[in-house]
TrEMBL record:
Source organism phylogeny: Eukaryota, Fungi, Dikarya, Ascomycota, Pezizomycotina
UniProt-listed Pfam families: Palm_thioest
Signal peptide residues on this chain, from the entry's feature table: 1-21
Keyword Repressor: no
Protein name: Palmitoyl-protein thioesterase 1
Gene Ontology molecular functions: palmitoyl-(protein) hydrolase activity
InterPro entries per UniProt: AB_hydrolase_fold, Palm_thioest
Source organism (scientific name): Clonostachys chloroleuca
């Protein structure tokens, strides 16, 4: 990163903090304690301006005062278009749009790095952002209940959510046709190990960013391995995401559950997870509760432990979690 860019970033974030009248300790001789900006990508059926997301941003700012929070929207300022884009659209094109928006953003693009929070499908999409674009580069990625190894079913729709129900009926119809793959968002991370050939052949998103096809893209692995922290939260009582183990990249094939470290995607390091693990940056976490039941304390800890100033240090992972949830 060029020094001029860091300075521009500092100036902009300080301007933001001044507006918010937050006390800051400015001393040219000390490392900059400005927290990195945070990018949030929300889940299926949510909107960028939802109350819950606002609270998440407020917590982040309470833990690291002066945090600039950017929430991804695929509908500009139109919340219903943004919600609709969580169900319908071509994820490749959606990611291209987000890559462009982040790279052109005056604050994000001049920061030395950003931190990122992905809720549910937003988690694998942010991972896609890192693998494919990563400008500005992500330092810490936290994903909550994300479908990193795909889904075989999604039980997400409210009783009167016709948009959701319409999407889900389409999902079950000819999932891997080009028609469905270019239009229905959840279909693009649908992955049934029992029907693996169809997935490899037709998946528009997941098979690509998981580098499961014969020709691997090295950039994907290099970019993901550049993370300092990849924190993956799994909801122990998740009844929405099937199988819930997908949040830890576990393979569930019938009754067989294969932990990430026993899978080729890790062992042959298709996407950089092994390299990241070697440096202590791969972090398995679980939450007691159903999908997206995130205690405030967990958000607080996530921000405190993995986000904040650029120059902070992180403890390498040494915990007992071994990516084997569900087998104990
Ligand atoms: C690999 O991914 C990068 C980043 O998206 C892209 O620029 C490049 O063209 C891809 N390489 C191949 C061989 O597809
Ligand atoms: C999805 O969008 C990408 C990028 O715009 C495009 O290249 C691709 O052909 C689209 N896929 C389908 C199946 O329409
Ligand atoms: C899942 O299990 C079935 C039957 O045991 C097997 O044929 C298939 O190859 C497995 N799928 C994967 C992706 O390993
Ligand atoms: C989370 O952090 C905020 C801001 O410091 C604090 O007000 C709140 O009590 C914390 N919540 C929990 C459950 O610790």
């Amino acid at each position: 990163m060029l020094p001029t860019k860091s300075l521009a970033f500092l100036a902009l974030t300080l301007a933001v903090s001044t507006v918010e009248a937050r006390p800051r300790h400015i001393n040219d001789d000390e490392p900059d304690d400005t927290p990195l900006p945070i990018v949030i990508w929300h889940g299926l059926g949510d909107t960028f301006n939802g109350e819950g997301l606002k609270q998440v941003g407020e917590l982040a700012d309470a833990i690291h005062p002066g945090t600039f929070v950017y929430t991804v929207s695929l509908g500009g300022t139109d919340a219903s278009a943004d919600r609709s884009a969580t169900f319908f659209g071509n994820v490749t094109a959606q990611l291209d749009e987000v890559c462009e928006a982040l790279a052109a953003h005056p604050i994000l693009s001049t920061a030395p790095a950003i931190d990122a929070v992905g809720f549910s499908q937003g988690g694998q999409f942010l991972r896609g952002y890192i693998e494919r674009c990563n400008f500005p580069p992500v330092r810490s990625l936290a994903t909550f209940g994300s479908q990193h190894n795909g889904i075989v079913d999604f039980a997400a729709c409210g009783a009167y959510d016709w948009l959701c129900k319409g999407a889900m009926s389409l999902l079950r119809y000819n999932t891997f046709s080009t028609f469905v793959q270019s239009r229905l968002v959840p279909a693009q991370y649908f992955r049934d190990p029992k029907d693996y050939a169809a997935y490899l052949d037709g998946s528009n998103f997941l098979a690509d960013i998981n580098n499961e096809r014969e020709v691997k893209n090295k950039t994907y692995a290099e970019n993901l391995a550049r993370l300092s922290n990849f924190v993956m939260y799994l909801f122990e009582d998740d009844t929405t995401v099937i199988p819930r183990e997908t949040s830890w990249f576990q393979e569930v094939n019938g009754t067989e559950v294969i932990a990430i470290r026993d899978r080729p995607i890790y062992k042959e390091d298709w996407i950089g997870l092994k390299a990241l693990d070697k440096k202590g940056g791969l972090r398995f976490r679980s939450i007691t509760g159903d999908h997206m039941q995130i205690p405030e304390s967990v958000l607080n800890e996530t921000f405190a432990n993995f986000f904040g100033p650029y120059y902070r240090k992180f403890e390498p992972e040494t915990g007992v979690d071994d990516g084997r949830w569900g087998e104990l």
